[in-house]
Amino acid sequence: MKENPFNQTIEFKNKPKIIGNYSVAGPKEGKGHFGKFFHYVMKSDNFGEATYEKAEKKMMEKVLKGAINSAGLKPENINLFLAGDLLNQIISSSYAARSFDIPYLGLFGACSTMAESLALGACIIDGKFFENVACATVSHFSTAERQFRYPLELGNQRPPTSQWTVTASGCSILSLNGSGPVITKATFGKVTDYGITDVNNMGAAMAPSTMSTMIAHFKDTGTKPDDFDLIITGDLGKIGSEILIDLMEDKGFKLGVNYCDCGQMIYKSEQNPLMGGSGCGCSASLINSYFMEKLKKNKVKKILYLATGALLSTTAIQQGETVPGITHAVLIESGK
Amino acid sequence: MKENPFNQTIEFKNKPKIIGNYSVAGPKEGKGHFGKFFHYVMKSDNFGEATYEKAEKKMMEKVLKGAINSAGLKPENINLFLAGDLLNQIISSSYAARSFDIPYLGLFGACSTMAESLALGACIIDGKFFENVACATVSHFSTAERQFRYPLELGNQRPPTSQWTVTASGCSILSLNGSGPVITKATFGKVTDYGITDVNNMGAAMAPSTMSTMIAHFKDTGTKPDDFDLIITGDLGKIGSEILIDLMEDKGFKLGVNYCDCGQMIYKSEQNPLMGGSGCGCSASLINSYFMEKLKKNKVKKILYLATGALLSTTAIQQGETVPGITHAVLIESGK
Predict the structure, then answer these.
(1) What is the ipTM of this complex?
(2) If I label B147, which of A7, A225, A313, B271 is the partner at 20 to 30 A Cα–Cα?
(3) Taking each helix axis from N to C terminus, what angle separates B113-126 and A113-126, rounded to the nearest 10 degrees?
(4) Partner B, chain A 232-291, Cβ-Cβ below 8 Å
(5) Separation in Å, CA of A155 to nearest CA in chain B
(6) Could you say which DSSP state residue A192 is in?
(7) Taking all residues of chain A, what is their mean pLDDT, rounded to a whole number?
């Protein structure tokens, strides 16, 4: 890989703060390891709506409202809503944005979207372009299965390498005012492709991009894995995390006990999640609940959060394309 | 509509410059009004590729290379590539980004994407986060028809209100170094929905959002339509432009001869484009060719460019949803 002479990392000198956050999770996720940390657990997958797509949109509306509320603000105080999701034309985000009188920018980074929105939001706040921005993403098991794989009604068997798309959503409010954990750096990732063609093995497709972004962050900032209380990847799952650990070791970086993957942690083993969770709501919901609480209470001081995306499209795969990955990183500090 | 107490407009104090640009157009577009202004006109719709999707990706690669070249730079000088397109999971942008060793952020704003990428790119440059960023988008008639409407092989009749998705792409390189037209302001739009359900009448779906963003820009900056040499909308087409003119007149703003719409202008009437062109490549290709030349030669000094998007998804429409619109605006000045 050719070296970019400029680094990939931004340092935010004005220290944008996460002044509010909220998470919503589905019933299965509510029964997982982090059930008690989510702000809201849905009683049913359809969230009282006629379709799963409408349920997903409602989840996005709920996290945005919840995060604004938790920041002690009102919707009219939010200058910009940066959001994306996995559905074609990111309808969950766009239709949710329609319910609010807030300017909106749609993003697509597959499961890397939460870090993409936080990084761009931090640029907007750090550059003092706007006062308060909201950053969010959502995913839903049933809409993702229908769109990317098979309708649930078919009852297809799941291959052993597959991950379970997490039904969850997370939102953060960024501002220079107020108090909260601080986004201090962001590293933007490159599209990386090691030639994986199996859409049921997304961890393997994403891990090389995670290695690329993580090493870029270490090199740009002169850090090493031990310098962080936690290094959290989005949703590589069991296989993907193991591949990442191997890839990093080959490059001379040993990921230790401070490394964990949201996809691997979110479900209990008796929930039969195969390789673990995936979907952009997976890490978005954990970052905006359990981990944000850890930062607020200063139980951890420095989290390097790498959201990992498989840039998957059924059309591209049908045309014989491989699955590239992308990973964006944000460094979140307790600020205390 | 509730008023947001903060304005929607950013002023770029460091004046990010458009130091390079490039456009690619399809054969039909090459025979239209702007044929001689495009940097490259494709000889065939498939651009030598096996599928239209691969052709679309190749167009994106070509504009990115061309724009970098026109700025006198090399790919390794570009710190960030901000791009999106109309295809599910924006595969044209993501797979094009894979061909370059440049960090990438995927965007989705439907046909508003060129303004979204320019506005975000201008924030990144103005905030001095990076040195050079590339902003681009692409659309292709044949991939859009297949995805959003019917496969071309069916030979469906086109309703009289329909627009023709433009096969074209445009890319701009932004920097504080070098010379070129300047992005001085950006106004971020809100998702606006007047209840249109006809996916073949996108101009009507988008016009209310264009009104909303245009009025926000005028109010925020204390300007009126006469203050600009040109006010250019993306792809409202004939009906949409007429609706916009009416809506603006109702609000007390008279759009005069300095107003034009890329969708309405791009084809000649003998090309039977019905209501005109659409697709994010429509305005992206004209802004990055004909209009950029006008600015560079100082023949126009101030262009308010409003890229208009219909946030359309086949799934949402099948579930009875209406088509919301979004419009983002950037003010581009000759800087002379």
Answers:
(1) 0.96
(2) B271
(3) 50
(4) none
(5) 21
(6) B
(7) 95
